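Tip: read the tokens left to right.
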């Protein structure tokens, strides 16, 4: 019997402090739908969370109880992903054993001390005192060392929300641009004590950035395009629909919600159809959220969370049933009618006779702005000059026209058509020599000439020659005439020196030469509301 007592007392210290050995929780995930991928976090950095697929072992995921949090992510095709944050919120059950061994060890040690003082009990009570001391010591040590709390061992899988997909009768979309329209104070953060406080939006600390900031690689178009492709709103890159509606997004506010080492972004954004005319149209305001991530000290605004939240907002905007969503109601043709509703038809008088190409040189000008230059075509002796819209699209610039005789006069921007890339300038003078207009459209293979100011202003009135290579639809001529920066807005002439189009672009790529484009003459009339 005595041997048994001694054995039990010596075993007590081995049980004390065992709560520190509770280093792992085996998480059982229940209710994951078929076809859903389950992942857990491995690490987190400035570029986002690194995930590991645990789909095959989803009924038993090992979680370290010494980590401050864990993240579990569910993904399924055509659905918004869901990330569930896990915090160690359950008290370590082995701490109760530590309490018991602490109390029992103290009691055993006290009894041994009493027996030694009274001369009662075992002949040698040292084993009681020593066993009780070490049992109480390790029991108390176990109470104060981690893990004090551990993760729950069961988790119910969330129900993933489907992303709205394009229906057959709805147009395809393209991404015009996704802009960061964040002013000072539009990047905010809020801290919460726990997840319950976050759900109730009871922040104990709030602040905002009161200075300008830069988001590295702020072009967010690619992420939005990717989610459009996944939901069939956008065709594959090599199969883009000609009638795709261009969507324009603007990020207006970012709120960073922090719960300990966890964080999640709330984003406010506006979405509208790209409007080349600059007319005010209805916009759709969307509040979206990123998924949960770990907080990285010093990372600043996290680009991965911004792009994720914006992608979710974009596809939500397309799927809305609000009748005010503009792409369901307005096309470019409607906007063009509204844009030009205040215009009067303007009559211009081109030259009645042409001649050699050299005779057209005085009818070509250099259009100069504060930050660049292009070319232009005189279309009326009273000072009307046609150029490209992209040459004069900065309305804050002051424009000057330099003529062939080296005179320079200030010019007024009268009207423009950004879709056709045309603009009309007016200088206050008379007696200019306008170009003659071709009465018959040129044919593919006909000889054509370009006149303009390529590369730098000292090269004004440069003539280059080629052929009309192709007609691309009704609104574009392709030519192999040599075209350089600065030629934009200059004339494309036939071999009689008659205007057949307005040069507006060149394909610039490695290994590509002899591909330029011009706006056909017949586009000037509806584009700028001209008559002759």
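Filled-in amino acids:
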């Amino acid at each position: 019997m005595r041997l048994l007592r001694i054995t039990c007392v010596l075993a007590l210290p081995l049980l004390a402090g065992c709560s520190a050995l509770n280093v792992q929780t085996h998480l059982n995930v229940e209710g994951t739908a078929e076809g859903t991928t389950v992942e857990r976090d491995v690490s987190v950095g400035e570029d986002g969370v690194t995930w590991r697929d645990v789909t095959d072992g989803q009924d038993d995921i090992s979680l370290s109880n010494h980590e401050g949090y864990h993240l579990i992510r569910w993904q399924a095709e055509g659905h918004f992903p869901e990330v569930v944050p896990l915090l160690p919120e359950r008290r370590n059950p082995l701490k109760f054993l530590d309490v018991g061994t602490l109390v029992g060890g103290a009691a055993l040690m006290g009894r041994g001390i009493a027996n030694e003082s009274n001369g009662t009990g075992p002949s040698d009570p040292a084993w009681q005192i020593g066993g009780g001391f070490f049992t109480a010591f390790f029991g108390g040590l176990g109470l104060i060392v981690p893990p004090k709390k551990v993760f729950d061992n069961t988790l119910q899988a969330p129900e993933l929300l489907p992303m709205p997909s394009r229906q057959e009768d709805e147009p395809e979309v393209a991404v015009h641009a996704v802009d960061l329209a964040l002013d000072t104070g539009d990047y905010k953060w809020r801290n919460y004590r726990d997840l319950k406080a976050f759900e109730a939006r009871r922040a104990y600390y709030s602040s905002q950035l009161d200075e300008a900031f830069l988001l590295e690689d702020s072009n967010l178009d690619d992420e939005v395009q990717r989610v459009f492709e996944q939901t069939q709103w956008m065709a594959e890159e090599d199969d883009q629909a000609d009638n795709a509606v261009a969507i324009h997004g603007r990020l207006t506010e970012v709120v960073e919600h922090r719960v300990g080492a966890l964080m999640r972004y709330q984003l406010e954004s506006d979405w509208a159809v790209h409007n080349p005319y600059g007319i005010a149209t209805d916009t759709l305001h969307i509040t979206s959220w990123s998924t949960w991530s770990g907080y990285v000290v010093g990372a600043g605004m996290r680009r991965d969370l911004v792009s994720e939240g914006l992608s979710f907002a974009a596809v939500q905007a397309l799927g809305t049933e609000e009748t005010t969503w503009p792409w369901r109601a307005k096309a470019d043709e409607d906007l063009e009618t509204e844009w030009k509703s205040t215009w009067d038809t303007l009559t211009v008088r081109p030259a009645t006779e042409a001649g050699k190409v050299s005779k057209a040189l005085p009818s070509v000008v250099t259009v100069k702005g504060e930050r660049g230059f292009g070319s232009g075509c005189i279309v009326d002796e009273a000072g009307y000059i046609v150029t490209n819209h992209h040459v004069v699209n900065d309305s804050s610039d002051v424009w000057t026209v330099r003529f062939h005789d080296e005179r320079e006069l200030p010019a007024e921007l009268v009207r423009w058509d950004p879709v056709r890339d045309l603009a009309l300038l007016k200088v206050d003078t008379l007696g200019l020599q306008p170009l003659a207009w071709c009465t018959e459209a040129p044919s593919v293979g006909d000889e054509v000439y370009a006149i303009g100011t390529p590369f730098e202003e000292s090269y004004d009135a440069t003539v280059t020659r080629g052929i009309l290579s192709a007609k691309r639809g009704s609104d574009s001529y392709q030519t192999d005439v040599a075209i350089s920066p600065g030629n934009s807005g200059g004339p494309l002439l036939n071999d009689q020196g008659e205007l057949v189009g307005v040069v507006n672009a060149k394909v610039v790529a490695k290994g590509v030469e002899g591909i330029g484009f011009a706006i056909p003459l017949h586009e000037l009339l509806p584009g700028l509301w001209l008559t002759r």
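The chain has eight helices and 31 strands. The longest helix spans residues 94-118.
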